[in-house]
Write a structure and sequence with these properties.
The chain has 400 residues and is an alpha+beta fold. 31% of the residues lie in helices and 25% in strands. It folds into two domains: 192 residues, FAD/NAD(P)-binding domain, CATH 3.50.50; 145 residues, D-Amino Acid Oxidase, Chain A, domain 2, CATH 3.30.9.10. It binds flavin-adenine dinucleotide.
């Protein structure tokens, strides 16, 4: 196989596959290097929720773009709908005290983006979800949201990238990055490859890759846990979340019910394995049955967890390196990166190829963290001395 490419992507989760596809759509020759197989980690085992609440304000424009892309996902990936179903998302306040903060969040969304949200009082909640427990106060319904099938989405993006010429090298670990003239040499367990641009899509391992080029950020690594119940008669229609307790539930078309929401086991970044915490899984299941009593008749068939990296401000890191030209990041999706997959890949590819990104990447730049500030300052100075060179252009695209 060839060893020189236009861009090398490290990691084949949803973000590596998405940016590889978008770069291939722009006619770049792309190599994706994955240490296991595409979708092995968070991207293939997540809950598949596609919704924008609760999200931090800087992320809302990207959330709006990604929702529009999910609505037309079949067009993006040549007819594969990725199991996307626009069933809506219902966020529920269980007590009167929780209603005002919930409404405040919804007003924030209305101020910062154009995603429809409908306030539901108690009666309207039961009209929408008759199976709900009576111990609820009000809700916000987001009709534009829904869920997709994570593994199908990863493979749809990968398959389109491959059809456009991208090469995927699985079971190959990237172990270092070195400069070689204008290019980067990417050292791997299968030997070196080179390209002028390298994209770090290494998920929870992204901070290690970033540190190789001097971009230092500490991620909190977590193992989010999930359970699935055997197929049941219809219990709910929408994707459900609570405002106060950790709970997210959805029922797929085959009747299975997936329960998660943020309870954590123990991750091991070295082996890539996780350990479940059955006590906490019990809390999660109990909360589910308290909100939908019919779930008490369900049978748990499987529990699992996946590894995720959370950045210090819980926003993802997307955009150019603070330290080196030609290095780009897309990692630390902080427990909500699946739904951002379509848009993040697109805006990053736009920035990398000199287009103006549809959404500003400025809030996501790695230079916002202490470990990168000094390098960013040095780089800005260099860029101002060499206007028009790639580094200056990269920073200009960020509006910096
Ligand atoms: C249980 C669970 C439920 C979740 N539920 C949701 C949800 O409902 N909705 C939502 O939006 N988000 C959800 N998330 C978060 C979402 O799954 C992640 O944010 C997203 O998948 C991150 O994608 P990624 O491509 O950045 O990382 P990953 O999927 O982790 O991919 C990174 C890849 O990089 C590879 N890699 C790392 N280092 C190297 C190296 N040195 N060389 C080669 N390859 C390397 C890894 O093997 C891995 O395959 C959930 C996460 C989990 C764990």
């Amino acid at each position: 196989m060839r060893t020189s490419y236009d861009a090398i992507v490290i990691g084949a989760g949803i973000h590596g596959c998405s940016v590889a596809m978008q770069l291939s759509m722009r006619k770049l020759r792309v190599l994706v290097i994955e240490k296991t197989y595409p979708g092995r980690h968070a991207s293939g085992v997540n809950a598949g929720s596609v919704h924008h609440i609760p999200r931090l304000t800087p992320e809302l424009p990207l959330a709006e773009l990604t929702l529009r892309m999910w609505h037309d996902i079949g067009e993006l990936v040549d007819g594969e709908d990725c199991g996307y179903r626009q069933v809506g998302h219902l966020r529920i306040a269980e007590t009167e005290d929780d209603v005002a903060p919930m409404n405040g969040t919804a007003e924030g969304v209305a101020r910062h983006c154009n995603i429809e949200e409908i306030h539901l009082d108690r009666e309207a909640l039961f009209d929408r979800e008759p199976g709900l427990s009576r111990n609820v106060a009000a809700g916000i319904f987001s009709p534009e949201c829904g869920y997709a099938q994570p593994a199908r989405a990863v493979h749809a993006f990968r398959a389109k990238a491959e059809r456009l010429g991208a090469v995927f090298l699985n079971e190959t670990c990237v172990v270092g990055l070195r400069r070689s003239g204008p290019d980067w040499l990417v050292d791997t367990s299968a030997g070196p490859f080179d390209a002028p641009m390298v994209v770090n899509c290494a998920g929870a391992w992204g901070s290690e890759v970033a540190s190789w080029v001097g971009d230092h950020v500490t991620l909190r690594t977590v193992a989010l846990m999930m359970s699935v119940l055997a197929p049941m008669k219809p219990v709910m229609e929408t994707v459900i979340g609570l405002t106060r307790r950790l709970l997210s539930i959805k029922q797929f078309e085959n009747g299975t019910v997936v329960i998660g929401g943020g309870y954590r086991g123990t991750p091991d970044l070295v082996t890539g394995r996780t350990m479940l915490d059955y006590t906490r899984l019990g809390y999660n299941l109990r909360a589910a049955t308290e909100v939908f009593p019919a779930l008490a008749h369900g049978r748990v068939v499987r529990c699992w967890s996946g590894i995720e990296g959370i950045s210090p401000d819980a926003l993802p890191i997307i955009g150019p390196s603070a330290s080196e030209d030609g290095i780009w990041h897309s990692f630390a999706y902080s427990t909500h990166g699946f739904y951002l997959g379509p848009a993040a890949g697109r805006v990053l590819a736009e920035a990398m190829t000199g287009e103006r990104p549809a959404v500003s990447l400025e809030p996501f730049h790695i230079g916002r963290f202490n470990g990168c500030v000094a390098n960013l300052e040095r780089r800005r100075e260099r860029a101002s001395r060499s206007v028009g060179r790639s580094g200056g252009e990269q920073l200009k695209l960020l509006g910096q």
